[in-house]
Amino acid sequence: MHVREGNNETGDWEKKSWRHIPLIPTLGSTLASMRSFAEKRNATNVSVFVASDSTKARPWLEANVPAEWTVVKPGKELPRPESGVWFGEYASETNGKLNRTELNEAMAEAVADIFALGECDALYIPNYSSFSIVGIMLARAERKKVFFQWTTKEWIEYPWYDAAYDITSYEFA
Asked: pLDDT at residue 173 above 50?
């Protein structure tokens, strides 16, 4: 899952209040949807991967997932900026506070998170974060389910397949 809580950003993020979420209710609805998905597949040995700008998301899930589920932990916990994100915020100088090693580690974590999202059997993502785009493309290429947050309490599945976009039927010279 990808959870974008926001981290006291200014500018674009601050102006778009519809992006601001109540973290705990959002995590709760996401977990409820994940449980339903797992039950429909009779899955009991479930792993949950969390990519988030919030330091609270993973611990909350660890405390609330079913006992037989596992929340994936990174090998190393990296610090989060006091405000904003390390990369991607327009005109931000947040990453100027990192030395070369810290920049490399932060970028490596971001890239790993993006690719890990694409490996999920079901991908739960917010409808307001471009961070998920590569994960969505990878998941869709493997015909895995992608769920968008519709409301704080409701998730909708991205349409599964449209034959009009099936490139396997085209011949290339």
From this structure: no
